[in-house]
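Example 413, ligand pyridoxal-5'-phosphate.
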Amino acid sequence: MPLPGPIDPPARLLMGPGPITADPRVLRAMSAQLVGQYDPYMTQVMAEVQELYRGVFETANPQTLLIDSTARGAIEAALVSIVSPGDRVLVPIMGRFGHLLAEIAGRSGAEVHTLDVPWGRVAEIDAIAAAMERVRPRVLAMVHGDTSTTMMQPFEGLRELCDRFDCLLYADVTATLGGNPFPVDGWGVDAATAGLQKCLGGPSGSAPATFSPRAVEAIEARRSIEAGIRVEGDPVAAAPIRSNYFDLAMIFDYWGPRRLNHHTEATTMLYGAHECARLVLDQGLAAYQERHALHGAAMLAGVEGLGLEVYGDRAHKMANIVGVVIPEGVDGEAVRGALLEEWGIEIGTSFGPLAGRVWRIGTMGYNARRDAVLTTLAALEAVLRAQGHAVPTVGGVEAAGECYVNAGDGSPA
Ligand SMILES: Cc1ncc(COP(=O)(O)O)c(C=O)c1O
């Protein structure tokens, strides 16, 4: 085989459910040179990252850090470290990622109970309360925004419910953090994990996470330090956390004052995660979320302006992704293919029962921008027409434009 050429990807506008086009500021940070594991600069950046993400998560949790993995790894770290084999875990499922939580909790040894919600809807608090009454779980594990359906679960009231049953509250905020309100302390969440590749504007591969003192207590109770690095007095548990890589007690030591060696830091991802949080806090968390609300609303208006139907319960939609029902007679994959090949634009389809039935269009992170929204709508219109589907001329672009004018935003911010 001849030597392959250097990496030189085609120009793309990633308007799917994530990953999205990375912010150039994040890519620049990621091109910085490495320093050693215990270089003072490394530990300074780690400390800065912890403080930055306390801002993004709106928490005072000392244990706020990065898991060196994609978002799925952070879910696994949280659940495998909090859940002891045999613990009851309640998982309301409203889409693909609820199933993922149940799967990971099960593999962590939990006795998993689910509350199945029809896709396109969210779980009602009364239904969650009834399930809690029945199951008496030690952990309530929920997806905040299930990317597969674009639905966002309300978290108000869950802390009170968990207090009533002495239960820990875990949230997967991979697809929502930064672009939608998620005040960890305000909502009394015990553990929350995310990823960089959605609203935070970075690539996947590092997962911000935060743990309340209550969650830390549960994790520390299972602390066991591996041979080779343990010193006298370090605990060795009879039944340690089942994963070594995702053992949060050891990861806390690695990020903490002991700097106990665990893995080799993914320095380039650390730099990227640092810049992602700076992007959010530089603009201001509230303004960053408002930007997602504005461009998400414009995309939704544009989709409707093209005469297309929006999927799911509108009242509980995530700001940053819209599900679009693929019209009768339209080949959804052919439309996605033409968008990519002719316009360099990627949009997503969905999973399971929604595969081939729904497109998902994201407006998040670097692509929560007016020009990205308008270009995508113009392209979708052209492609739909080329496929023989009648759509109102410039209907999408006009409806989105109107949305910007009504919001007093004529600028391409
Ligand atoms: C809600 C949600 N949870 C978890 C994940 C898994 O993330 P990753 O692919 O980074 O492991 C995703 C990915 O799209 C997601 O949308």
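Summary: The radius of gyration is 22 Å.
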